[in-house]
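Sanity check

After download, print the first record. It should look like this:
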Amino acid sequence: MIDSKTKEIRAFCKLNANPDIVKKYSRYFKEGYDGYGIDDKIFKEQIDKWTVQWQDEMTLEHYLTLGDELMKNGRFDEKHIAISLLKSHRQNFTKDTFYRIGNWFDHGINNWATTDVLCMLVLSSVLFDEVIGVNDLKSWISSESEWKRRAVPVALVELDKLTKDLKVIEAIALVEPLMLDESEYVQKGIGTLLRGLWKKHPAQVEEFLSKWKDNCGRLIVQYATEKMDKEYRKRFRRS
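Expected structure tokens:
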């Protein structure tokens, strides 16, 4: 079954490949972009069709196995299809789902966009539905994969969009071990998280930034203070 679904997905991707879209998006990926360039509207419509057509035959385990295959051997769009289809089984997510998608960073997820889509469509749901707790992400902090480390703050960004009330102390404690991370993508993820938290909890975030501003990656402070007044932002420059 998985083989036939994989072939169908790849046939769809090849049929709808658009070199103009590939050219457009390539500039956003320093590490290279191996996408087909599928129009977003066509992509979403097909996901909806497959979700309905396959609902009686594809279980959560089937979609996870499909994801294993596409993450190992698939191209950009194929990986996003796997994530989008997995989302349709949100009501069946378990802690094993969390472990399985965690493995995808070790053999397939290789850019910021796929990381962020996984956080937005799946990981945020696993957290919001309390299938796992925020502290379960701690094991990802020491990963060799910069994308798995980036997923820690980005998952909290997406969770905050759902809860509207992310616990600031818990969030800061989780990302603090990443404050010296050298990856620009991890730094941007942390900065984005802190920027969102600052809007609701300015005192706690500013205290945290003051503590780290002289040592952490410059992109963290740049992104975190982006919405501050220009003069006020100067408080967080390195000494």
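If your output differs, re-run the checksum step. Summary of this record's structure: The CA atoms of residues 214 and 238 lie 5 Å apart.
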